[in-house]
């Protein structure tokens, strides 16, 4: 009997030890997964709340440079030269991503997308500054292939050695934006996996936000059902402005869309004013853009919210603004 009792004890011990080991291993694996879950493919990138591509600049530079009355290429070159040239922003070997507005299946004269000559010139300047690769992309509202083609941007970019990336589902990643409206949302990864980022919006009317310029242009980095954000559009634009801090902002106001935006269509709704403005302050550049639409910065909720959050300056009378007329 004693022998049998001893055997039962050993069996119990082995069984209980095995069960305890499985439980410990399971608990350990689960704990590791919970701790490191953001590293698994398809999981939310919980560690990311801001993408800051800014560079250190001298304090004596103007807050905004505004250049008028020449070709798109000459306007861009002159404006950037006033900030010390593109080499002040782009270093040798950099991968640069450029974000124009390419949202709509429209031709350049309809002023729904960024001017292709402006984009082309910026690509050239980046390469001249030593960039390794220059990529142009956007998450279009209409069919992306048609938008990139009819806007003239795809051809212009490729003609100077730039690369065009169309939005693909596999290149979106759910990311935590840390905003008041935008919490977790799919982001097109080329815009956050780069060395430098240049925002090149066009100035145009928007039927909900009032205008589309630099801050609103970040809608084009998002996937998902973006129309859901329209319920609180001004706050969501400010969220995006906080999430994306570009190296440089180049405001295309060569031909602007005054009404029936953002899609436009009627050339009678546009006006050629042959203007380019450059800044590193998204709020400031949008504040200037507001004046081109015969509005004040205070007329736009997203500009006010950006200013209130400390994301930039909306007080044009406080800024060092350099104006150049090439005509």
Core attributes:
327 residues; disordered N terminus; single chain; globular; two-stranded parallel sheet; 10-stranded mixed sheet; 14 strands; alpha/beta; 8 helices; 31% helix
State the gist of this model.
This protein has helices at 2-36, 72-81, 116-128, 144-150, 153-159, 233-243, 282-292, 301-308; strands at 51-52, 64-68, 95-100, 133-137, 163-165, 172-176, 184-188, 196-200, 202-206, 210-212, 244-245, 248-257, 270-279, 321-325. The protein has 327 residues and is of the alpha/beta class.
Explain what you see.
- This protein has 327 residues and is of the alpha/beta class.
- The protein has 8 helices and 14 strands.
- It has helices spanning 2-36, 72-81, 116-128, 144-150, 153-159, 233-243, 282-292, 301-308; strands at residues 51-52, 64-68, 95-100, 133-137, 163-165, 172-176, 184-188, 196-200, 202-206, 210-212, 244-245, 248-257, 270-279, 321-325.
- The strands form 3 sheets. Strands 2, 3, 4, 5, 8, 9, 10, 12, 13 and 14 form a 10-stranded mixed β-sheet that branches. A two-stranded parallel sheet has the order 1-11.
- A hairpin with a 7-residue loop joins strand 6 (172-176) and strand 7.
- Helix 2 crosses helix 3, helix 3 runs parallel beside helix 5 (153-159) and helix 6 packs across helix 8 (301-308).
- The protein is globular and about 45 Å long.
- The model is unreliable at 1-43 (pLDDT under 50).
């Amino acid at each position: 009997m004693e022998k049998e009792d001893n055997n039962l004890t050993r069996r119990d011990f082995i069984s209980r030890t095995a069960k305890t080991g499985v439980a410990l291993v399971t608990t350990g694996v689960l704990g590791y997964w919970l701790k490191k879950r953001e590293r698994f493919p398809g999981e939310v990138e919980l560690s990311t709340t801001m993408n800051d591509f800014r560079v250190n600049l001298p304090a004596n530079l103007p807050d905004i440079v505004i250049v008028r009355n020449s070709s798109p290429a000459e306007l861009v070159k002159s404006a950037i030269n006033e900030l010390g040239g593109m080499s002040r922003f782009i270093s040798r070997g950099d991968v640069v991503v450029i974000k124009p507005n390419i949202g709509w299946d429209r031709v350049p004269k309809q002023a729904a997308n960024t001017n292709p000559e402006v984009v082309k010139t910026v690509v050239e300047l980046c390469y001249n500054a030593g960039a390794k690769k220059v990529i142009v992309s956007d998450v279009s509202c209409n069919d992306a292939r048609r938008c990139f083609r009819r806007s003239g941007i795809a051809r212009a970019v490729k003609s100077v050695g730039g690369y065009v990336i169309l939005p693909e589902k596999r290149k979106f990643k759910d990311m935590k934006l840390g905003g008041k409206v935008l919490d977790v949302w799919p982001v097109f990864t080329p815009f956050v996996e780069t060395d430098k980022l240049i925002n090149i919006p066009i100035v145009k009317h928007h039927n909900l936000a009032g205008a589309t310029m630099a801050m609103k242009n970040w809608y084009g980095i998002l996937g998902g059902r973006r129309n859901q954000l329209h319920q609180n559009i001004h706050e969501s634009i400010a969220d995006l402005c906080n999430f994306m801090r570009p190296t440089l902002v180049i405001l295309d106001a060569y031909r602007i869309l005054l009404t029936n935006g953002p899609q436009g269509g009627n050339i009678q709704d546009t006006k050629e004013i042959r203007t380019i403005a450059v800044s590193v302050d998204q709020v400031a550049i949008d504040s200037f853009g507001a004046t081109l639409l015969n509005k004040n910065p205070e007329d736009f909720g997203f500009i006010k919210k950006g200013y209130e959050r400390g994301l930039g300056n909306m007080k044009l009378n406080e800024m060092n603004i350099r104006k150049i007329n090439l005509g």
